[in-house]
UniProtKB/TrEMBL annotation, chain B:
Pfam families, alphabetized: Thioredoxin (PF00085)
Domain of life: Bacteria
InterPro entries: Thioredoxin-like_sf, Thioredoxin_domain, Thioredoxin_ResA/DsbE_sf
SUPFAM superfamilies membership: Thioredoxin-like
Domain Thioredoxin as annotated: residue spans: 2-159
Official protein name in the record: Thioredoxin domain-containing protein
Organism field: Geofilum rubicundum JCM 15548
Alphabetical UniProt keywords: Signal
Signal peptide: 1-19
Length: 199, 159
């Protein structure tokens, strides 16, 4: 009986641990293979020749995600050619939020002029990354044989008004990496929408 | 007499069918935190929500169920709104007119950046809805949706 209890306790510990597993800055970023809006599969390993990748968990319906759409297009324009392309991933289950369906991702991307892949996360990859909201950014650095996390958090310090931003957290982090330095601010938080999934 | 009863009935019905008509006050998040971290006997329940947040709007009736006293302790529920402050008149006031929110609503004024999120609770990522319960210096935090039954359990843990 005692052994059984111990086993149950250990199991509970493991379960609760995996439920809250979250990438920290410095951790290796898990690879993925997700479907892009053009029907092609996209993997993190496709970016082996880049200096890094800007992974953005975002979606169609969330007002905070919408506020950042044009800023993410600008990030791709600014940093894609410098070796830090954007990969956007929609983690929401469209049986909960219909607006976040694959077909709506295609039309939203066309409407907003997305210049980066927009992938459907139907395998709950967001849990492996520890993403909890949209938008939620993971800046990855190419280490040669893998990618590690260099920055986690918000794009900048003003969700409502792109013209009134004082700190461009993500852009500053990329600039640091381009200079061969570690980002000064490696983690930030911001208000956002919860990720909608079936538990 | 009948007329009076009828009038009273109509007035009550009108009040019940319509939400709050007063615009919520602006409260800096640091002030809000100071208020709820008091050593008083009151159980403070703070729900961070916004009119644009679908799960937040869905769970408002669960907060409406919270009574003013619970197991002999006074309860204060604060519905801390996180719409942008300049959208108070255009979004929050109309929302409160058309929806029943029985507890106090405040416009949460937050400083630039996200450090205030850590101040509320280090485990909060910033996603809403989020609910915090404070009682005599003890705190329970939850990110995501909740319901009245769940909140009763959390309060019991703090009492």
């Amino acid at each position: 009986m005692k052994r059984l209890l111990l086993l149950a306790g250990m199991l509970l510990f493991v379960v609760s641990f995996t439920a809250t597993a979250q990438l920290s800055v410095g951790d290796e970023a898990p690879d993925f293979k997700l479907k892009n809006i053009d029907g092609q599969w996209v993997s993190l390993s496709d970016y082996d020749d880049e200096k890094g990748v800007i992974v953005v968990f975002t979606c169609n319906h969330c007002p905070y995600a919408k506020l950042y759409e044009s800023r993410i297009v600008d990030l791709q324009k600014d940093f894609g050619p410098k070796g830090f392309p954007v990969v956007a991933i929609n983690p929401n289950d469209s049986t909960i939020v219909a607006e976040d369906s694959y077909s709506k991702m295609i039309s939203n991307a066309a409407e907003k002029g997305f210049n980066f892949p927009y992938l459907l996360d139907d395998v709950q990859l967001f849990k492996q990354y520890g993403a909890t909201r949209t938008p939620h950014v993971y800046l990855l650095k190419n280490q040669g044989d893998n990618f590690t996390v260099a920055y986690i958090g918000a794009i900048d310090d003003n969700s409502q008004d792109a013209n009134d931003v004082e700190e461009r957290y993500l852009a500053n982090a990329i600039q640091s990496l381009l200079k061969g330095k570690a980002p000064e601010i490696a983690e930030t938080k911001a208000v956002g929408c919860t990720i909608k999934f079936h538990k | 007499m009948f007329k009076l009863i009828m009038t009273l009935f109509l007035v009550t019905f009108f009040l019940a069918a319509h939400g709050q008509t007063k615009a919520p006050g602006d409260v800096p998040v640091a002030h809000l935190q100071k208020r709820v971290e008091s050593a008083s006997d009151t159980i403070f329940v703070v729900n961070f929500w916004a009119t644009w947040c679908q799960p937040c709007v869905k769970e408002i009736p669960e907060f409406n169920k919270i009574p003013l006293t619970y197991k002999n302790h006074p309860v204060k529920v604060i519905m801390a709104n996180l719409d942008f402050p300049n959208q108070k008149e255009s979004r929050v006031v109309p929302f409160l007119k058309n929806n029943i929110v029985t507890h106090e609503v405040v416009m949460t004024i937050t400083p630039r950046g996200g450090e205030w999120i850590d101040e509320i609770d280090s485990s909060w990522s910033g996603a809403i809805p989020a609910t915090v319960i404070w009682h005599k210096g003890k705190k329970y935090f939850h990110e995501g949706e909740t319901n009245y039954e769940q909140m009763k359990e959390w309060i019991d843990r703090l009492l």
